[in-house]
Amino acid sequence: MSTTSSNESRSRGKAPAGERVADWADGRLGIYSLAKANMRKIFPDHWSFMLGEVCMYSFLIIILTGVYLTLFFHPSMNEVVYHGSYVPLQGQLMSEAFNSTLHISFDVRGGLLIRQIHHWAALIFLGGMFVHMMRVFFTGAFRKPREVNWLFGFLLFVLGMFTGFTGYSLPDDLLSGTGVRFMEGAILSVPVVGTYLSFFLFGGQFPGGDFVARFYSIHILLLPGIMLGLMVGHLILVFYHKHTQFAGPGKTNNNVVGMPLLPVYMAKAGGFFFLVFGVIAAIAALFSVNPIWAMGPYRPDQVSTGAQPDWYMGFAEGLIRAMPGWEINFWGHTLILGVFIPLVMFGVVLMMIALYPFVESWVTGDKSEHHILDRPRNAPTRTAFGVAWITIYMVGLIGGGNDLFATHFHLSLNAVTWFVRIAFFAGPVLAFVITKRICLGLQRRDRDKVLHGRETGIIKRLPHGEFIEVHEPLSQEQLHTLTAHEQYQPAEIGPTVDENGVERKVKGSEKLRAKLSNAYYGEDSQIPKPSVEEYKEITSGHGHH
Amino acid sequence: MKKLSARRRHPLAAVVVLLLALAATGGLYTAFAPASKAKADDTAQSLTIEQGKKLYEVGCASCHGTGGQGSSDGPSLVGVGAAAVDFQVGTGRMPAQQPGAQVPAKKVIYSQAEIDQLAAYIASLGAGPAVPTKNDYSPEGADIAKGGELFRTNCAQCHNFTGHGGALTHGKFAPDLGDVSPKHIFEAMQTGPQNMPSFPDTTMTAKNKKDIIAYLNAVNGNETVTPGGFELGGLGPVSEGLFAWVFGLGALIAVAVWVAARTAKAKKS
């Protein structure tokens, strides 16, 4: 800067420090145009739109606390003798990994709190992703153009499960060692390649001396790296697609009604981060999680009852616990169906929800963009499918904790297992039927409210003695909200003969699609929303009918 | 001889033979039975047994038989020893309320003196483990870490890492060891009550039992410290996951609803 210009600026008075810093940055990074384009980005306001934020913030908390933990953790399986401050383990042989986790818990300042924040945040992160995913599912936010982002989210959930699992395995305690052994069994059950995969993963026989170091780099580098990338991509796509919104007056498929990113949304989101951190830190300060000192070091010859994985793997655990121990022996080989079928089912159940958006768009044949969310009742078949899927998932979770359900509700363990076996097949069907009926009932109620207004509970006596209940007509806004959703018509197969009267071949997929479409949008699957004519006809009367 | 031979097919012949045989065995028994048994014994020990027998006839005989020989409703008590009685009655398991997969611990209805009398009576039926002395089970001076290792090797597969209990098949269960006294833990290991295997001194030395008791005392007793905070039952990931969902996510959703409700609305005039 030359002397003259500095003299000039002094004579006009210096710009505020903030402005000068911003100017400096703009000259190098071009932040002004970036800010101009994005500062007024609008986000709609609804509590359920903040579930994704819960996930993002808990993920950030996990990364922050995880970095601290890496400073003290030794990912090694060398055997050492414990001489730390936890008396009931003194003199015990254990791996360095377990030793250093005890060291973090008892001898590093703030170590136990950070460990507990890390673990609680992981449990909440996965739970948050589950709820967020279900919010997106039930409101139909996965429809075009957001299918790719749905897959990004699904991948984040699955990778989160495996990141969590590898993290749970690192301390090499008796609980996690049992979990790793469980996973090894599942890998071994894979026909033909299972044994090789297991040898490859563990560097030979289980447990070997390698898996903690390998899981460590998977847990702190590989998976979180991919997840971070996916999360950034997820957010970029949210920005690019703009956020969805619920139907309402003034809200169309072409606009977003809400608050600008700056300052309102930034302040809210920033504040929300600290609230999330606060809740998790409070839980971590008050409640113990994964007390590895109570579990002791892993030894393959020991096992404890109540050996479950963290909740997000509990569904897989339940599948295996409920499965009968079938196996087939042929030509000197054993196929462990009792483990392999649950392993396959684990993937199948997850893929069911992941691929649903594509099935739905194929059935509807709808290629248009959707930015207005559905109310779950207005998509009864989808909602029923979602509830059926959650039912399968929850039945699996009950199966994973069958021993604790048995002891705490004074039931027979075998009875709980049989319940899980039956409910795995019957539960989703029941849930599907019941949910669909509830949705249709709610649609009827909406239709009734639009046509006849709200029941006020006021009983009026007419001059000739008749009693009537006064119905209060809904406001225009409410009428709009209740009738804004679009309703599909079931797809037809179309003419089976062309203009020349020649019969064409109807493909099987076409028939299936027509059938599914009829199941989705046929007479029994949706209540026609009131048309303008119906509304006019009824409201033109005497206010009572 | 002819006379006898002629009457051997008399309808009453079998009865006469039976009477003669019974008289012969009875006579021989009284002749050869050890005389000392028949002698009256009025020592304190015998009085205790006498009292125990009376209690037994009232509270136990209906299932275990009048002489402890067992019946279809209860096992034989010959040879189970005083330690088994002290455990079963001392923890309220016996007398049982109803048959079932397993008899649970409940309110103790006998005083310790009565339990001792019952134990003395059962011990008099056949040799078995005696009630341990305080010296046997006191956790003082035992090796806690060794006890932990032994516990994880022998007990944890049913009783959980720190003895919080677990499920067994068909409604049976391994109970929580949190409020079980050291004496009863020792007796349970010694006698193997109900579904539990027994760990006699030949399998697990008295010193090792002491180590286990010391370990349980350290990790699942009244003075146990839980460095991480409330331990949510000490049951592992199931209760933690449930807590994370209900209270963790529950609180965060409540906060989200609160934040979303407090929005910068367009000013209403």
Describe the fold and architecture.
- With 545 residues, chain A is mainly alpha-helical.
- Chain A folds into two domains: 53-305, Cytochrome Bc1 Complex, Chain C (Up-down Bundle); 374-490 and 507-545, no CATH class.
- Helix content of chain A is 62%, strand content 6%.
- Chain A has 20 helices and ten strands.
- Chain A has helices spanning 3-12, 17-29, 31-38, 51-70, 96-106, 111-138, 147-169, 174-188, 194-202, 211-241, 261-286, 292-295, 311-322, 337-364, 380-400, 402-408, 413-452, 476-483, 508-521, 532-539; strands at residues 42-43, 79-81, 93-95, 245-246, 259-260, 328-330, 333-335, 372-373, 454-461, 467-472.
- Chain A is globular.
- Chain A starts with a helix and ends in a 6-residue tail after the last helix.
- Chain B is mainly α and 269 residues long.
- Among the domains of chain B are: 44-125, Cytochrome c-like domain (Cytochrome Bc1 Complex, Chain D, domain 2, Orthogonal Bundle), CATH 1.10.760; 134-219, Orthogonal Bundle (Cytochrome Bc1 Complex, Chain D, domain 2).
- Chain B has a two-stranded antiparallel sheet.
- In chain B, helix 4 (44-59) packs across helix 7, helix 6 crosses helix 11 and helix 11 (182-191) packs across helix 12 (206-219).
- The longest helix of chain B has 25 residues, at 237-261.
- Chain B is elongated, with a radius of gyration of 30 Å.
- The model of chain B has no long low-confidence stretch (mean pLDDT 86).
- The chains are: A mainly alpha (545), B mainly alpha (269).
- Chains A and B meet through helix 4, helix 6, helix 11, helix 12 and helix 13 of A and helix 9, helix 10, strand 1, strand 2 and helix 12 of B.
